[in-house]
Amino acid sequence: MLWIGTSFKMTKTRAEAAEYAARLRYGVGENGIPGVQPFLIPPATAIADVAALLDGSPVLVGAQNAHWEDSGAWTGEISVPQVADAGADIVEIGHSERREHFAETDATVALKVRATLRHGLIPLVCCGESAEVFAGGGSTEHVLAQVGAALDGLDDTSRVLIAYEPVWAIGEHGREPRPEEIAGVHQALRDEWGDRVAAVLYGGSVNRANAEALLRVPGVDGLFIGRAAWDVENLLTILANAPTAVTT
């Protein structure tokens, strides 16, 4: 099964997210795309609206973050039970922007993974190295350490999704990777975690032009797409072409 989806980050109003979700549902169809699991991660303000529109469809809905405690004096935070109540199936955890700007650490990532699993949701664990680590040849070691810390001690990781997103490839100024530049990390993730997690995705400068080539990299089980998928037609094109990409 290929997992393919997008996070809106801090974009789109409730109305814009709802319009996107409605078009996505129509484009995917009620029976979905064989061999592909689509997902959509809107901002917290739109989770309930998007989940209602996608209810009963093949598209899963996610949250961009959730706290590790179920409740308490954590002003401004949202718990896993709360995002589940809003309709989320997936919780995105440990994105590099959360690590850089909001002091997310390997320790807090691990706590959030456990909270997400405890409540029956799917953790989408993000990992990735900086340009400096990449240039120094330490990508594989860095990424395996991040994932190892996030999943350490868990008896069952079969519902976990891993998203490898090299920091040098994500964002508005990210550099599009060559397939061979990500192949080593994906092979290492497959060797270490391939039979213990639901899927290992790639994310970072994914677009309509390179999606099929990235899906053909050994160890890539899907795509976590950024701004290229904020236009729903781009995501629908990538979803429609994905099954062909992995059979050719």
TrEMBL record:
It is found in: Cytoplasm. One of its GO terms (cellular component) is cytosol. It catalyses: D-glyceraldehyde 3-phosphate = dihydroxyacetone phosphate. CDD domains: TIM. Coiled coil: none annotated. It is an enzyme of class 5 (isomerase). Its EC number is 5.3.1.1. GO terms for biological process: gluconeogenesis; glyceraldehyde-3-phosphate biosynthetic process; glycerol catabolic process; glycolytic process. Keywords: Cytoplasm, Gluconeogenesis, Glycolysis, Isomerase. The keyword Metal-binding does not apply. GO terms for molecular function: triose-phosphate isomerase activity. InterPro entries: Aldolase_TIM, TIM_sf, Triosephosphate_isomerase. Pathway: Carbohydrate degradation; glycolysis; D-glyceraldehyde 3-phosphate from glycerone phosphate: step 1/1; Carbohydrate biosynthesis; gluconeogenesis. Belongs to the triosephosphate isomerase family. Homodimer. This is Triosephosphate isomerase. The gene is tpiA_2.
